[in-house]
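go over this record:
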Amino acid sequence: VVIPDSEYLQPGQSSGWVPMGQVLDALHNSQWAPRAIYKEASGKDMVLRLQFAIPDGRGGLKTIKDITVKGNPPRHGGAPYSPIVFEIPGNIAPNADVTTALKERFWLPKIRTQKEAVDWLLGEVRKFPNVGPTPKRFLLYNILGFGGRSFDDPATKQLALALGDNTWVGGTGQKRELVAHWRDPNPVSIKKRETSRTGGFKDLLVVSYGDEIHLPSDPVTDEEFVAWLKQRGVKYSGAVKFTKTKGQPLYYYSQICSKEKGGRRFAAGTAYYKSKGIRTGANYSPHSNYLVNELDYIRTFKLRAMSLPWSEDYVWQIPEFSVQAMGYLTSGLRAGAKYDNLPIHMYVMPHSPGNTPRDFRLSYYTAIAHGAKHINYFCASPLATGVTENYIATDDLEMWRQVHACTHE
């Protein structure tokens, strides 16, 4: 496309008003970055003075923000982090009734850059009551996880520390790193990873084999199945055939045999990681039925296929459900952890909107009461710098207050 010279703005000129409704999420806040096309690419930072306006109710427009930004827009397909990225509410001009409701229940809409949002949140967090020090041994993961850490600004790390991080900025130089997900349990592959990393596995503590996975069901020959049954003293008068067909007499044992064979592959990798002081696990999603089963929650750890029992809290997504289910999940994992006195790692989700400060707090302490030794917040990043549907609304100070309180109590 050839742009005529007359279409380029000259220094001191301004464009006309550009409607933005079509690029925003009407239900909640969105991230938005302006883009400018220069006639001659200079490689320098983009410098733009931007005005945001809303209808004034008399047929005109009222400017509500006037700001000059300097930087480059996010790379195409890359994460949206830049000094010129804005967090913009879906309804920036609520009527009187909505404004009243927002004041009573939530907060009023504001347009701000990512930098402004992070600086504001840091200032608010620093006002929270000092209820205690950051834990020294109890590990807390993913404060500013899922995006927040990637915003390259000094306030980012300051915010993490203010909220109580002890595994990222607060864990520097200590064996606390978590990686997700290294899916291959083959010791040969693991050793290649180790040699490719500066410092090897010196600071690595937790490796996830995958998200919402289960032990694989490896193929089993009839001969292997016969030997497996004999080893366990299981007698059967008919022909012994491995089966995947439900209703067959040996289906139950076939499934266990297949799972145990798959588990042995993971046990080899877990044994090597253990020699380096590293725990292995995989997030067991309870999904909507919250069913604790022996194969995943117990046998996996009895086989030493993994060494870090791990599940997650999405209780708030299930209608007519109770946070008590978090204790049920954690206790199910404790039944597997008992064989080697393993620590338990639990996701406790502060999603906002979605979860509530009350239920987040209940979930946090329920997990601890039932045996969790690691808590993973998964997504404790402000929406302004988040990259997925997993975030805390930047303005939700009640949720941020609970994250801060739970972390420091």
In short: The chain has two domains: 5-110, 121-212+281-408. The chain has ten helices and twelve strands. The mean pLDDT is 93.
